[in-house]
C-alpha cells in the first residue's frame, strides 16, 4: 500500500505533472484534463452521498471507487505497454459497465416514462445527481478527445457514457420515482 506522508512535492511547480507510467506532460494535457474532470465528478458525487441514504448511498460509494479506477486508467497512456509495467495495470472493465446497465434497467423499471424533458432539480439529492450528470458528460467529452490518438480504453469511454445515464435515472428515482420531476415547458417564459 502506498503511504502519502508528504502531500506537496514541488514537481508540478513549472506546469507539468507525471502520468502513472512516469512520463511528464503539461498540466493542460488532454489526458490530465480527462482524469482531472473524473476527479471533479467524484467530488460532486461526494456531495450526492451527503443527501443519499441506504441503497442509493451504497451505489454512489461503489461508483466513487470506480471513478478512482477510471482516473488510474486514464492517467496511463500506451495501453500496448501494459504487460511491460511489472505490475497489474488498473483498467476499467466491461463488467463495471454491465453493472451500471443492470442498475439503470432496475431503477428505470419503476419509473413513469418521460413525455417531456426535465429540468434539474426537485429534491436536493436529485439536483446534485443532475449536476454530477453534467460533469460526467464533460468527463466523457474530455476522455473521447484521447480517442484521436487511439490510446484510450474503450471500456472507460463506455463507463462514462453509462454513468451519465445512471445519474439521470437515479435523479428521477430520488425525485419520488419521477413524481417530483420538474418538467420543461417549452416557451413558458415568453
UniProtKB/TrEMBL annotation:
It holds the Pfam family Cob_adeno_trans. Gene3D superfamilies: Cobalamin adenosyltransferase-like. Its main location: cytoplasm. It is found in: Cytoplasm. GO terms for molecular function: ATP binding; corrinoid adenosyltransferase activity. InterPro entries: CblAdoTrfase-like, CblAdoTrfase-like_sf, PduO-typ. Keywords: ATP-binding, Cobalamin biosynthesis, Cytoplasm, Nucleotide-binding, Transferase. The keyword Ligase does not apply. Transmembrane segments: none annotated. Pathway: Cofactor biosynthesis; adenosylcobalamin biosynthesis; adenosylcobalamin from cob(II)yrinate a,c-diamide: step 2/7. Its EC number is 2.5.1.17. One of its GO terms (biological process) is cobalamin biosynthetic process. It comes from the Bacteria. PANTHER family: CORRINOID ADENOSYLTRANSFERASE, CORRINOID ADENOSYLTRANSFERASE MMAB. Belongs to the Cob(I)alamin adenosyltransferase family. This is Corrinoid adenosyltransferase.
Amino acid at each position: 500500500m502506498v503511504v502519502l506522508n508528504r502531500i506537496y512535492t514541488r514537481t508540478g511547480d513549472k506546469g507539468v505533472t507525471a502520468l502513472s507510467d512516469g512520463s511528464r506532460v503539461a498540466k493542460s494535457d488532454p489526458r490530465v484534463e480527462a482524469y482531472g474532470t473524473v476527479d471533479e465528478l467524484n467530488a460532486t458525487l461526494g456531495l450526492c452521498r451527503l443527501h443519499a441514504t441506504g441503497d442509493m448511498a451504497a451505489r454512489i460509494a461503489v461508483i466513487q471507487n470506480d471513478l478512482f479506477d477510471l482516473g488510474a486508467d486514464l492517467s496511463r497512456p500506451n495501453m500496448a505497454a501494459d504487460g511491460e509495467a511489472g505490475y497489474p495495470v488498473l483498467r476499467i472493465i466491461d463488467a463495471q459497465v454491465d453493472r451500471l446497465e443492470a442498475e439503470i434497467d432496475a431503477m428505470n423499471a419503476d419509473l413513469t416514462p418521460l413525455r417531456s424533458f426535465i429540468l434539474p432539480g426537485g429534491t436536493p439529492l436529485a439536483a446534485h445527481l443532475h449536476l454530477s450528470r453534467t460533469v460526467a458528460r464533460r468527463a466523457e467529452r474530455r476522455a473521447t478527445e484521447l480517442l484521436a490518438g487511439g490510446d484510450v480504453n474503450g471500456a472507460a469511454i463506455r463507463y462514462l457514457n453509462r454513468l451519465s445515464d445512471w445519474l439521470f435515472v437515479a435523479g428521477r428515482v430520488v425525485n419520488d420515482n419521477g413524481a417530483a420531476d420538474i418538467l420543461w415547458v417549452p416557451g413558458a417564459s415568453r
